[in-house]
């Protein structure tokens, strides 16, 4: 089995509980813990546009903030962008909008950018993915609410995406309702037209986050998400503590 890449997204998904307002002291302890336990990628928050409501630094994960942190050398930094923001902010031109949020990779600690998309948004943000790759970022599409997509739609995703346009295709069990038996079927449908890396983001509504993650790994997924103590929106995610014990 090829090496599994663990991405801990506690500060991004867990931020729904505290408006992404984590203290620098807590972030420092978190980073050192992730470094020590063998996690490779840490998603330090969203990269989003300014808001009129209060949100902490991890809602924006700007380069200035990232540069203020002492990030261990063995950790790679990821951030997530909601496709809906790129498509609806000001001019509603996603290519113009992404250039507001990012500079060239050589000026940033960010190594991986994940675009969280609903099915109807995927094709619209491919121009964004291409621009990010030209700036030397690793790029992932996160297909949300996979359980609400038909078999034909899931299979079609691979036709829409080309391996040179993104690096990783993630799918999310956003509502946490997927039966474990369906995981392999979804992966096989994606693989019909996509031969790049696959990733999974599970939720624990039915206490199946770990079970579904393990099933995905057995079916060929190489990237898995987790959070410390499962902290995340709703019932949370697969617990990093368990994931590390199994895959490190």
Notable traits:
single chain, 248 residues, alpha/beta, eight-stranded parallel barrel, 10 helices, 35% helix, 18% strand, globular
Summarize the structure.
The protein has helices at residues 10-13, 24-37, 63-67, 83-88, 94-101, 126-134, 151-160, 180-191, 209-218, 240-247; strands at 5-8, 41-46, 76-82, 110-117, 138-143, 168-172, 197-201, 223-226. With 248 residues, it is an alpha/beta fold.
Structure description:
The chain has about 250 residues and is α/β, with parallel strands linked by helices. It contains ten helices and eight strands. The chain has an eight-stranded parallel barrel with strand order 1-2-3-4-5-6-7-8. Strand 6 (about 170), helix 8 and strand 7 form a beta-alpha-beta unit. Helix 7 packs parallel to helix 8. The longest helix has 14 residues, at about 25-35. The model has no long low-confidence stretch (mean pLDDT about 95).
Topology:
Layout: E1 5-8, H1 10-13, H2 24-37, E2 41-46, H3 63-67, E3 76-82, H4 83-88, H5 94-101, E4 110-117, H6 126-134, E5 138-143, H7 151-160, E6 168-172, H8 180-191, E7 197-201, H9 209-218, E8 223-226, H10 240-247
Parallel strand pairs: 1-2, 1-8, 2-3, 3-4, 4-5, 5-6, 6-7, 7-8
Helix pairs in contact: 7-8, 8-9
């Amino acid at each position: 089995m090829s090496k599994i890449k663990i991405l801990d997204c506690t500060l991004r998904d867990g931020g729904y509980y505290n408006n992404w307002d984590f203290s620098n002291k807590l972030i420092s302890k978190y980073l050192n813990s992730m470094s020590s336990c063998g996690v490779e990628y840490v998603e330090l928050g969203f990269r989003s546009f300014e808001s009129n409501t209060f949100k902490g630094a991890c809602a924006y994960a700007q380069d200035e903030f990232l540069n203020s942190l002492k990030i261990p050398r063995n950790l790679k930094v990821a951030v997530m962008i909601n496709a809906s923001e790129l498509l609806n902010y000001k001019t509603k031109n996603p290519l113009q909008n992404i250039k507001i949020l990012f500079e060239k990779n050589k000026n940033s600690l960010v190594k991986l950018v994940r675009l969280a998309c609903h099915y109807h948004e995927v094709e619209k943000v491919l121009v964004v993915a291409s621009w990010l790759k030209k700036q030397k970022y690793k790029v992932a599409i996160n297909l949300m609410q996979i359980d609400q997509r038909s078999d034909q739609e899931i299979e079609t995703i691979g036709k829409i995406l080309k391996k040179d346009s993104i690096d990783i295709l993630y799918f999310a069990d956003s509502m946490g309702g997927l039966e474990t038996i369906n995981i392999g079927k979804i992966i096989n449908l994606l693989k019909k037209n996509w031969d790049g890396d696959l990733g999974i983001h599970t939720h624990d509504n039915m206490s199946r986050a770990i079970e579904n993650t393990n099933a995905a790994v057995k079916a060929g997924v190489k990237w898995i998400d987790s959070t410390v103590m499962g902290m995340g929106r709703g019932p949370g995610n697969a617990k990093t503590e368990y994931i590390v014990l199994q895959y490190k």
